[in-house]
């Protein structure tokens, strides 16, 4: 009979710990990650495999960003999950991606300009910055992150980066990030 109270105490301790989203997710679903390494200039994070809905942005203008957001909204409706990514490839190809929480069912995508993408588990270098998000701020912070990564002798590709936003554009404060994938 002494064994039962001991088991009641140990069983909860043996369960895997639930992932706790950072404060800047504000209680909304966020892409899950583990911090692998943290420096004063950047973090290295390991993200679990995640789903995203993505559409191309013809030009990096406010009009085209709003239109891209409307296309994603027509597929998924309005849901509160973070981050929203602006993906930049070769400095001239842009796409907007919304994180899809694991428990969300996306309806069939009938718009050929919107795709469901599964991003595999990946190590990402991250630089955090504040202020209203913009294409120019993303580019500036991607360049700063590249400088820091070179200084730290990290391996990465400069062909692609993503600007990550965690609040509405109209929010009073902003937690923004720039992500660059680690290469082997």
TrEMBL record:
Keyword Signal: yes
Signal peptide residue numbers: 1-16
Protein name: Heme-binding protein soul2
Keywords annotated in UniProt: Signal
Listed InterPro entries: Reg_factor_effector_dom_sf, SOUL_heme-bd
One annotated GO molecular function: heme binding
Family of this protein: Belongs to the HEBP family.
GO cellular component: cytoplasm
UniProt xrefs under SUPFAM superfamilies: Probable bacterial effector-binding domain
Transmembrane segments: none
Species of provenance: Gymnodraco acuticeps (Antarctic dragonfish)
């Amino acid at each position: 009979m002494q064994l039962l109270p001991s088991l009641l105490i140990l069983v909860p301790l043996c369960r895997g710990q639930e992932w706790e989203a950072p404060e800047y997710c504000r209680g909304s679903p966020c892409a899950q990650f583990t911090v692998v390494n943290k420096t004063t200039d950047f973090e290295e994070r390991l993200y679990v495999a995640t789903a995203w809905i993505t559409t191309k942005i013809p030009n990096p203008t406010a009009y085209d960003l709003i239109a891209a957001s409307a296309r994603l909204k027509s597929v998924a409706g309005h849901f509160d999950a973070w981050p929203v990514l602006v993906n930049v490839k070769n400095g001239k190809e842009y796409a907007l991606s919304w994180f899809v929480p694991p428990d969300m069912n996306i309806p069939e995508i009938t718009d050929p300009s919107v795709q469901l993408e599964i991003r595999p588990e990946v190590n990402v270098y991250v630089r955090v910055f504040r202020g209203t998000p913009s294409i120019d701020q993303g580019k500036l912070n991607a360049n700063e992150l590249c400088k820091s990564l070179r200084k730290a002798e990290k391996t990465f590709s400069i062909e692609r980066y993503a600007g990550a936003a965690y609040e509405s554009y109209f929010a009073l404060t902003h937690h923004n990030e720039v992500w660059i994938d680690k290469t082997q």
